[in-house]
């Protein structure tokens, strides 16, 4: 399906620590806001308070959990509690690897005295696709020593550019007929005492790709498996628990180093790399960024908590 309007696409880094929170960093939680939709990717402890600090509001439509390590899901309980106190009645959808139905049951059970909305659960596996209005979220298997997933949010393609001059030269009057052509409908125009049809493909360029965000969750490098769904992404949010000096440790505990994240970004040909899940052992991420840049010439960031990134269209 083609979409006419360019929805805004914002990424709020609500939690960028790994395993343990620090005074500066909260546990994993990435909010992606596209138009009126809000998705959370992982929901670490204290996520709802980070939403207050970042002033994002609480209109969460769905939560995607990458795996069942507690640093990635404990915040769901507090979030559900807060949403209920704020009067939410719409269902909250929880997506995650096998175990998500039991998890949703636990959230409902633990908050049972206050919860005023239903908690729904959707099990995701390698290759599962969740469809939303104008975009999809696709799951891919990652390498983390337990069953774990990463997610790719892909927008549907946008229509090609509308060639206004060409339309006018074909006899289409500016106004509502332009809109119909842009929506893919042929329109009739008077010519030589009769009517001829102008087809959309005569006045529209080829469809343009939508934007794409890939979030790996916790994992060893997996770029060789995800080229098809994550290649050319606008933003790759990659596990960078360690810097390259702790490479052995990264392998041992099924995480990635910043250098490995950089190599993944280069292999996938992404535009921007965000390093997250920073181990509390580091007080600075300067080394992480340096390590990633050795492999990747695109933009590298180690976002601080509460920072926001806007993803523009490429053209
Ligand atoms: Zn983790
Ligand atoms: Zn983990």
Tags for this model:
single chain; 315 residues; alpha/beta; seven-stranded mixed beta sheet; 10 helices; 25% strand; globular; binds zinc ion
Radius of gyration: 22 Å
**How are helices and strands ordered from N to C?**
EEEHEHEHEEEEHHEEHEHEHHEHEE
Cα separation of the termini: 20 Å
Unreliable stretches (pLDDT < 50, length at least 5) are none
Hey, roughly how much beta strand do the residues contain?
25-35%
Average predicted local confidence, pLDDT: 95
Q: How many helices?
A: 10
Please summarize the sheet with the most strands. Answer: 7 strands, mixed
Oligomerization state: single chain
Overall form: globular
Structural class: alpha/beta
How many strands appear in the DSSP assignment? 16
In the sheet with the most strands, the strands line up as 6-5-4-3-2-1-16
Which ligands accompany this protein?
A: zinc ion
The percentage helix is 10-25%
Please give a structural write-up:
This protein has about 325 residues and is an alpha/beta fold. The protein is built from ten helices and 16 strands. The strands form three sheets. It has a seven-stranded mixed beta sheet with strand order 6-5-4-3-2-1-16. The chain has a seven-stranded mixed beta sheet with strand order 7-8-9-12-13-14-15, covered by helices on one side. Helix 9 runs parallel beside helix 10 (about 285-295). The chain is globular and about 80 Å long. It starts with 8 loop residues before the first strand and ends in a 5-residue tail after the last strand. The mean pLDDT is about 95. The site of one zinc ion (ZN) has 4 residues, from loops. One zinc ion binds near residues 67, 69, 144 and 218.
């Amino acid at each position: 399906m083609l979409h006419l309007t360019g929805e805004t696409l914002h990424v709020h880094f609500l939690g960028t620590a790994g395993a343990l929170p620090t005074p500066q960093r909260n546990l994993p939680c990435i909010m992606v806001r596209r138009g009126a939709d809000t998705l959370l990717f992982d929901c670490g402890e204290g996520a709802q308070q980070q939403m207050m600090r970042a002033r994002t509001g609480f209109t969460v439509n769905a939560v995607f959990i990458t795996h069942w390590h507690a640093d990635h899901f404990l915040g769901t309980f507090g979030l559900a509690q807060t949403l209920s106190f704020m009067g939410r009645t719409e269902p909250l959808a929880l997506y995650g690897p096998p175990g998500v139905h039991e998890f949703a049951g636990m959230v409902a059970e633990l908050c049972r005295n206050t919860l005023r909305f239903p908690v729904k659960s959707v099990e995701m596996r390698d290759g599962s696709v969740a469809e939303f209005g104008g975009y999809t979220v696709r799951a891919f298997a990652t390498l983390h020593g337990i069953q774990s997933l990463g997610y790719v949010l892909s927008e549907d393609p946008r229509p090609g550019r509308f060639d206004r001059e060409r339309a006018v030269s074909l006899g289409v009057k500016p106004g509502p007929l332009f809109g119909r052509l842009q929506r893919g409908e042929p329109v009739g125009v008077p010519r030589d005492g009769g009517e001829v049809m102008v087809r959309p493909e005569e006045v529209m360029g080829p469809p343009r790709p939508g934007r794409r965000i890939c979030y790996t969750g916790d994992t060893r490098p997996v770029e060789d498996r995800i080229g098809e769904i994550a290649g050319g992404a606008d933003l790759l949010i990659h596990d960078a628990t360690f810097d390259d000096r702790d490479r052995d440790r990264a392998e041992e505990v099924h995480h990635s180093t910043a250098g490995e994240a950089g190599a993944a970004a280069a292999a996938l040909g992404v535009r921007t790399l965000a390093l997250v899940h920073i181990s509390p052992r580091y007080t600075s991420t300067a080394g992480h960024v340096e390590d990633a840049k050795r492999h990747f010439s695109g933009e590298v960031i180690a976002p601080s908590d509460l920072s926001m990134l806007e993803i523009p269209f490429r053209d």
